[in-house]
Request: fold
Amino acid sequence: MKIIIFDGGPRKGWNTARMCESFAAGAAEAGAEVETVRLYDLDFKGCRSCFACKVKGGASYGRCAQRDGASGLLERAAQADGLVFASPVYLWTVTPQLHALIERLIFPLVSYAKEEPALASKRIETAMIYTMNVKEPQFHETYINGGKGPLGAFESFVGRVFAKPERVCAFDTYQFTDYAKYDADKWDEAEKKKWRDEEFPKELLAAREAGRRMAEKIKAKG
Ligand SMILES: Cc1cc2nc3c(=O)[nH]c(=O)nc-3n(C[C@H](O)[C@H](O)[C@H](O)COP(=O)(O)O)c2cc1C
Reply:
C-alpha cells in the first residue's frame, strides 16, 4: 500500500510541510508506505504541449513523454494507491511547482476522445492539503466557489481521473518568524499567534486523521 505526498511548498518545516508530515504519520500508523516528495527540490517544468500523450497508437499514449526531473516520479505516481497534493495557496491557487506536476500527471490521462476511455490504471485515492492566510469562509467563497473557483476547478480535474479528493486545510496560517520585522500590519500578530497555538494543532490532527482514513480506504479496497 503506497501513498505519495507531493509537497508543493517551498519552505521546509513550515505550515504546508507540517501538514504533510501529519498526514504521512496518520497514513503510516494505518499501515501505508508513505513517500513525501518536495517538489521544489526537483528540476522539472510543466507541460510543453508536445501532445505525444495523445498520438493514436503512440509509444507515450496516456503518459507524459517529457524527460526531466519529474519523469520517474510520474511513473511511480501512476503505480501508487494514494496521491496527496499539498500546497500553500499562492494567488488563489496552488504553487507553480505543483501546477506543473499536475499538468504532467493529469493531462495525459484526460482524453480528447468523445467516448472518454478510462486511462488511469485504477481509481487512485487522492487528497488535497492547502495552507493559506485567509479564513475558511473566504476560502470556500473565492477559491472553491462551488467548483468554479481556481481550486474548485483544480480538484474537479483530479477527481475526473482519480478518486474524488478529500480536502484538508490550515487557515489563517502564521507566516513569519517575527511579524514585527515585516511590513504586514494588515494582520494582527496576537490573533495569528492565538490561531497558531489553538487551531493549527487541530488542523494538524485533522491531517493525521485524513492520512489514516486514506490508508484504511485503500486497505478496504483490498
Ligand atoms: C507568493 C505568495 C502568494 C500568496 N497568495 C495567497 C493567497 O492568494 N491567499 C492566501 O490566503 N494566502 C496567500 N499566501 C499566503 C500563504 O498561502 C500562507 O502563508 C501559507 O500557509 C504559507 O505556507 P508555508 O508556511 O508552508 O510556506 C501567499 C504567500 C505567498 C508567498
